[in-house]
Design goal:
Pfam families: Myosin_head. Its main location: other. ATP binds at residues 82-89. This protein is α+β, with helices and mostly antiparallel strands and 558 residues long. The chain has four domains: 32-166 and 356-379, Kinesin, CATH 3.40.850.10; 178-241, Arc Repressor Mutant, subunit A (Orthogonal Bundle), CATH 1.10.10; 257-338 and 524-552, Four Helix Bundle (Hemerythrin (Met), subunit A) (Up-down Bundle), CATH 1.20.120; 380-508, Up-down Bundle (Methane Monooxygenase Hydroxylase, Chain G, domain 1), CATH 1.20.58. It contains 19 helices and 17 strands. The protein has helices at 15-27, 58-72, 88-102, 110-125, 178-186, 189-194, 219-238, 243-259, 278-288, 293-301, 318-348, 351-355, 377-407, 421-428, 453-462, 469-480, 512-517, 522-529, 534-539, and strands at 32-35, 38-41, 76-80, 126-127, 135-136, 139-146, 152-160, 264-266, 273-275, 302-307, 310-315, 360-365, 486-488, 495-499, 504-508, 543-544, 550-552. Helix 2 (58-72) crosses helix 3 (88-102) and helix 8 runs antiparallel to helix 9. It binds adenosine-5'-triphosphate (ATP). Residues 43-48, 82, 84-90, 131-132, 134-136, 367-368 line the site of adenosine-5'-triphosphate (ATP). Adenosine-5'-triphosphate (ATP) binds at residues 43-48, 82, 84-90, 131-132, 134-136, 367-368.
């Protein structure tokens, strides 16, 4: 190994020196570099002969994890972190391949199965963003299970924070999840008509946020999605999805496309709203197996409650009806995604995993830190998650390094590092509320129980029907303004910024309350629970893990 393969050999280890050294190595096609235990992999953005490369190497990380598992019998975790487009998912795939290659297993098809499910999950969980044409819009934790003696038994995937808002809304220059484009590019006209679909341009969630741009940017993009569709259907069959399941998956996607096309206009008669064009409504009812279309319409435009046994119907305004419709579209998509992950896991796991299970190796591929021209609720959640990972990283790495120095009798000076605890306090808990300005701020509880941290404040504000995104920001300013990590934006009462460990990010709070409430109306869910389609009913009654994966059904069928 060369001296510059490991940057911990450098005399000075600051940001400038590290960047300089990495750039110099990159220019000589050395894409991987160690910093002690950590491997820094710079995206080569071109095909490189990865299997010939000498260390430092991604395979070394995988090797080290496996060796440690054998030696200690303890669970190992590889954390893959970096900003969007850095190459996390590709690196994770390389490491999984290598782990499969070096671990003995009775199931020789497991490697094929794991490699095979990637394009399937990517079709439903990835999308083209301004940063990356194939950006993962969900976090993945892939766990490889071993016997106590190191034989590979199976794998399991957990998905985290799927960016379901993308189904109904996205920023300029970004696309919806791949599968919607694949569907239109690859399906025959007859099959599209079976789902009441024709032209992708007719669908709100397919049209580009940039006016004037077509759904497919050019014939090449169309071809890309066309082959994705054929590949996707072949994989679904290979991993054991029945023809009926495949039809049902596309049926849910078609229902989402039609649902998002339902338009509401003010209705003088009720002072609420009514549905303009009934065609998408008919299509949704038919596809989702809702026989009582009147009930579905009422659930979309009104809320029914019972007070002292009396049925009270209140009419939604346009914003509430739009939010309710979109909440259902997002829920359908996230439940479908959870179901697919569950099915994939079934295919990757054998009964042996439960019987002779020993330690495991987990690979966490989380969306990296994001700072776009416009940052919304999703960026906020992703960045907060990255703050947590950063905290873990610092809590783990620095004390460990210092312990190693002590053990080896090396004299060392205390390593000074910037803790991100104050950002985490700002988000999760703000111990001392110093601001005296509490006017116009709503609280559920008074006195001792003041809300703490942005997440708590957000939850509190979400409970008040009169609250707005501006009143949320006002509340944040009042209660978080004392934190040096929080900055209000002068002249914009709907934005705020946070000084994260990576950099300062300005968040546009428009949509925060709606996203946090994620108000899926009980009346709409009731319609689906009465669907004549078992699959739809099961999607809404199945047990979902905390991350959203549907691993087993609790059937409603008698
Ligand atoms: N080792 C590699 N060799 C060649 N190309 C690569 C490699 N790693 C990444 N790339 C290229 O960079 C693109 C982005 O990589 P990848 O999708 O892994 O990034 P990411 O960090 O997972 O991004 P996101 O957080 O947006 O999902 C890939 O689609 C691929 O074109």
């Amino acid at each position: 190994m060369r001296q510059d393969d490991d940057l911990s050999n450098l005399e000075v280890l600051d940001e400038g020196t590290i960047v300089h050294a990495l750039r110099a190595r990159f220019q000589h096609d050395h894409f991987c570099t160690y910093i002690g235990d950590i491997l820094v992999a710079v995206n080569p953005c071109k095909s490189v002969p990865i299997f010939d490369e000498q260390p430092p190497h991604l395979f070394w990380v995988a090797d080290a994890a496996y060796r440690e598992l054998l030696a200690t019998g303890r669970n190992q975790v590889i954390l893959v972190s970096g900003e969007s487009g850095a190459g996390k998912t590709e690196s994770t795939k390389y490491m999984i391949r290598h782990l499969m290659y070096i671990s003995p297993s009775d199931d020789t098809s497991l490697l094929d199965k794991i490699v095979q499910v990637n394009p399937l999950l990517e079709a439903f969980g990835n999308a083209a963003t301004v940063m990356n044409g194939n950006s993962s819009r969900f976090g993945k934790f892939i766990e490889l299970s071993y016997t106590p003696t190191g034989n590979l038994l199976g794998a399991k995937i957990d998905d985290y924070i799927l960016e379901k808002s993308r189904v109904v809304h996205r920023s300029r220059g970004e696309k919806n999840f791949h599968v919607f484009y694949a569907l239109f590019a690859g399906m025959s006209r007859e099959r599209l008509l079976y789902y009441f679909l024709e032209d992708p341009e007719c669908h709100r969630i397919m049209r580009d946020a940039e006016p004037g741009l077509g759904v497919f940017r050019d014939p090449e993009e169309f071809q890309y999605y066309r082959s994705m569709f054929h590949n996707l259907t072949a994989i679904m069959t290979d991993v054991g999805f029945s023809d009926e399941h495949i039809t049902l998956i596309f049926l849910v996607l078609a229902a989402i496309l039609h649902l998002a096309n339902i338009v509401f206009v003010p209705c003088e008669e009720t002072d609420g709203v009514s549905v303009v064009d009934e065609y998408p409504l008919h299509a949704v009812a038919k596809l989702l197996g809702v026989e009582d279309e009147v009930q579905l319409t009422e659930a979309l435009i009104s809320t029914v409650s019972r007070i002292k046994g009396e049925r009270i119907q209140s009419w939604k305004n346009e914003r509430e009806a739009n939010d309710g419709r979109d909440a259902l579209a997002k829920e359908l998509y996230s439940r479908l995604f959870g179901w697919i992950v569950g099915q994939v896991n079934r295919n990757l796991t054998t009964d042996n995993v439960h019987r002779s299970r020993g330690p495991s190796i987990g690979l966490l591929d989380m969306s990296g830190f994001e700072n776009f021209p416009c940052n919304g609720f999703d960026q906020f959640l992703i960045n907060v998650t990255n703050e947590r990972l950063q905290q873990y990283f610092m809590d783990y790495i620095f004390p460990r390094e210092q312990l190693d120095y002590e053990r080896e009798g090396i004299t060392w000076t205390n390593i000074e590092y910037h803790s991100n605890e104050d950002v985490l306090n700002l988000v999760f808990q703000l111990p001392n509320i110093t601001s005296s300005e509490t006017n116009n701020v709503h609280f559920i509880s008074d006195g001792e129980q003041k809300p703490h941290g942005i997440l708590r404040l957000l939850d509190e504000e979400s409970h008040f029907p009169q609250s707005t995104d501006a009143s949320l920001v006002h509340k944040l300013k009042t209660y978080s303004g004392a934190s040096p990590r929080f900055r209000p934006i002068v002249g914009d009462n709907c934005s705020f910024s946070i000084q994260h460990f990576a950099e300062q990010v300005t968040y546009d709070a428009r949509g925060f309350l709606e996203r946090n409430r994620d108000n899926l109306s009980v009346d709409l869910v009731t319609c689906l629970l009465h669907s004549n389609n078992n699959f739809i009913r099961d999607l809404f009654t199945a047990y979902r893990s905390e991350t959203g994966t549907i691993s087993e059904y609790v059937s409603v069928r008698q």
